[in-house]
Amino acid sequence: MKVYFIIFLLACFISNAQSGFTDEVKAIGQKYDTLYDASKESIVFTGSSSIRVWKDLQERFPNHQVINSGFGGSQAVDLLQFTNDLILRYKPKKVFIYEGDNDIQSKKRPKEIISTIAKIRDLIFKDNPQTEIVLISAKPSISRWKLRRKYKKLNRKMDKMTLTDGRLKYVDVWKPMLDGRKVKQDIFVEDGLHMNAKGYEIWYSTLKNYVN
After folding, report:
1. What's the structural domain count of the chain?
2. Which pLDDT does position 21 carry in this prediction?
3. Is Signal given among the entry's keywords (predicted)?
């Protein structure tokens, strides 16, 4: 009886987690039902909360139709589950992906994360082989600095993944966010994880050439 109860609790937990993402993904879809213009080329930025809370993405790149489909707390497996809703439906010419940050925090191995990103890549290329994919490196942060070696290992694997296919790019936001060997202290909000305007200015400067 105890075993069945534990299974029931796990099922409820998984169901609630999935419905949480489902609601957020649905809200993103409803937002772009009115904003998305299918007659124009689009660029999708997606991934976890570092993308989701980048509120001025469209204003940063006014010459492009930018879709911000980031969803907070997500991991690569979550993006894989919602690839169609968050990426493919917008028929993007470019896709910027930021995943891996929460994965490492959740004790997933870099090899496992890369395998999931590869599945997302394959779905995108199957839908449109001409799409360009830009993988954004995991960022350093104050709150997760103790995990820096694992993040750096993931970034190396991500970089290596892009070397054999011209449609894949890797952009390193790790080094620009460092002050010597330490992470910059004044580019985060109070939680030490999410970025403030200074942090996003670094991201913009680093990413702009890949957008344009």
Report:
1. 1
2. 86
3. yes
Where residue 79 sits, what CATH number does that domain have? 3.40.50.1110
Q: Is residue 93 part of a domain?
A: yes
In terms of residue numbers, what domain contains 131? 37-211
pTM: 0.90
pLDDT computed for residue 212 by the predictor: 86
Residue 53 lies in a domain: yes
pLDDT in tens, 61-103: 999 999 999 999 999 999 999 999 999 999 999 999 999 999 9
Q: Comparing C-alpha atoms, which of 28, 142, 47 is closest to residue 103?
A: 47
